Amino acid sequence: MSHLIVAPIVLPAVLAPFIIMVLRHHLSLQRIFSVAGTVMLLAISLALLGMTLDGQVHVYELGDWPAPFGIVMVLDRLSALMVLLTAVLAMVVVLYSIGSGWDNRGRHFHALLQFQLMGVCGAFLTGDAFNLFVFFEVLLIASYGLMIHGGGPRRLRAGVQYVVYNLLGSTLFLFALGTLYAVTGTLNMADLAVRVGEMPADDTALLRVGAVLLLLVFCVKAAVLPLHFWLPTSYANAPLPVSALFAIMTKVGAYSILRIYTLVFGPEVEATAGLVGDWLLPAAMLTLIVGSIGILGTRIINRMIAFGAIASMGTLLISIALFTPIGTSAALYYTIHSTIATALLFLVADQVRERRGIRIRSHSPMPQAGLLAGLFFVGAIAMAGMPPLSGFVGKLLVMDAARQSTDFGVIWAVILISSFITIVGFARSGSIIFWRSHDPDFIDAPEPEVEIEGTEDEHAKEPAPEPYPGLAFSSVFGLVALLVLLTIFAGPVLEFTGETAAQLFDPSAYIDAVLHGGQK
Amino acid sequence: MEFLLASAVGMLTAAGVYLLLRRRTFPVIVGISLLSYAVNVFLFATGRLALNAPPVLNKYADVPYTDPLPQALVLTAIVISFGMTAVVVMIALSAYLSSQNDRIDMSENTGDDV
């Protein structure tokens, strides 16, 4: 039993109160500790990934209470991969927010960010369904603070919507957990898997209700249609580096779907066989379609990327909804890719916002337009799934996995058509933002300027100090480098995700490690 | 007893959902509180209803006991929902004070969904 497993939760949990209580008036010290903490988290998550390479499932019993009586943390390949992805993203976001001065526009940015990391890592590592709820709440309450960071009437009102929507989701989560507990008498995921497998097949109405309620909760988190309404408004009004960090939050929903519906309600469980996939697959396809239409339809950069995030969740969940090892392997690859690509686009959009506001319309030329146009181009290519970047590889894998499905024609059509719409949408807005502004004869019409005064006051009011523009740009380039690396090393990454999927679809090792192996 | 509890959960949920669909933040927050009461009562019932029974097993005699785990879950849920309500009240208050507008939807000032 290695104590390292609980470190990704304990480290931010200690660091965040320390930043609030001791360093609250020292921004530079906050920055130093936040960066140091994130570097340590990165190192820990790499070590954890190394531990899982031999295919073992590691269990950490909190308070040394044996499962299923105590709460367990479980480290397998999937958790290690997601924790590493979180740490990498956090590293980039911390550096960017320091470089762009965003952390100086409100208070407690770094403390909230560390609390958010604690919640996300906890959700990935826990092996207990109620504990999953608790970590969801931890990451949500930190995200409420981050979402309204910097303030402004528009952002605060979007924040109210976001909080209310998520509180509803939490209530639903509790109803689902209560139903499952009433039927099975346990909330430990491994124990749940055993009990669900033992249920008589003709007496499972309540169990199925619980399973579907739980799916609804995770779909709220993953922004699956028709439960996606919170995402565009909150992502578009949150500070953009925070939106980049939120790219991991929808993945928490996807992770939970993957975990619960392979381990507890796996494909071979008679009571719920086919139930989840049948609902999830059409919903995911609709999500993809609506996301790509949204990209084409919106006139604001932030919202466009938020819809891009919805579309990528659609692709991801199509692959998960197949519930085959090859589909899951493709989904994991696409998870890594879409998290990085979404974050990249949000950060580029923040740089564009600094220079010309968030509306997609003609504008006088801005400084460094060529560099930003290039970065936007890279991000858009990745997001739309064009060669040569990893989005292309990811979509190819998803489509290849869908070939085994009976309705692969529909899936292929949806993915290809929506990719086309996405490309058109990004090309349209990219050419308006970066090319039409280069017309030397163009003069800003006075009328839209008034519109800016009236509608984007708080965005305009934000001071735009740029203490370390080099740092901001290098973190953006770090994301580009990650995308390129993910494309070049697609082979080894796929090998790993393939092994991860194999581990997920053979839950006996997980159950064994939690219920029997932990006592060793 | 079962009927009483079930109808209480049902009525709390119905009232909560109704209030959630209002347009101003105050009824919505009250609705969320009602929903969280409903779920707390519901969680109690998941351990089966047992009156006047201690939450401990007795290995010497076969006496009735009540399941202690749902009580722990309810306690956690109460603490979390209490904190969340406080947060949402503060955010709603500052949203109202900064925009002089208590509506929960964002359709009035355009600019967000053109």
Tell me the helix content of chain B. Answer: 55-70%
Largest sheet of chain B: none
Question: Helical amount among residues of chain A, as a percent range?
Answer: over 70%
Overall, the morphology of chain A is: globular
Number of separate helices of chain A: 21
Overall strand count of chain B: 0
For the record, the count of structural domains of chain A works out to 1
**Structural class of the helices, strands and pairings of chain B?**
mainly alpha
The secondary-structure class of chain A comes to mainly alpha
Give the tally of structural domains of chain B. 1
CA radius of gyration of chain A: 22 Å
Average pLDDT level of chain A: 86
**Percent in strands of chain A:** under 5%
Strand order of the largest sheet of chain A: 1-2
H/E element order of chain A: HHEEHHHHHHHHHHHHHHHHHHH
What does this protein look like?
- The complex is a heterodimer of chains A (520) and B (114).
- Chain A has 520 residues and is an all-alpha fold.
- Chain A has one domain.
- Chain A is built from 21 helices and two strands.
- In chain A, strands 1-2 form a two-stranded antiparallel sheet.
- Chain A is globular, with a radius of gyration of 22 Å.
- Chain B is mostly helical and 114 residues long.
- Chain B has one domain.
- Chain B has helices at residues 2-20, 25-45, 68-99.
- In chain B, helix 1 (2-20) runs antiparallel to helix 2 (25-45) and helix 2 (25-45) packs antiparallel against helix 3 (68-99).
- Mean pLDDT of chain B is 85; it is low at 110-114.
- The A-B interface holds A 130, 134, 137, 141, 144, 148, 151-154, 156-161, 163-164, 167-168, 170-171, 174-175, 177-179, 181-182, 187, 233, 236-237, 298-300, 303, 451, 454-456 and B 20, 25, 28-29, 32, 35-36, 38-39, 42-43, 45-48, 69-70, 73, 76-77, 80-81, 83-84, 87-88, 91-92, 94-95, 98-99, 101, 104-106, 109-114.
- Chain B: Keywords: Cell membrane, Membrane, Transmembrane, Transmembrane helix.
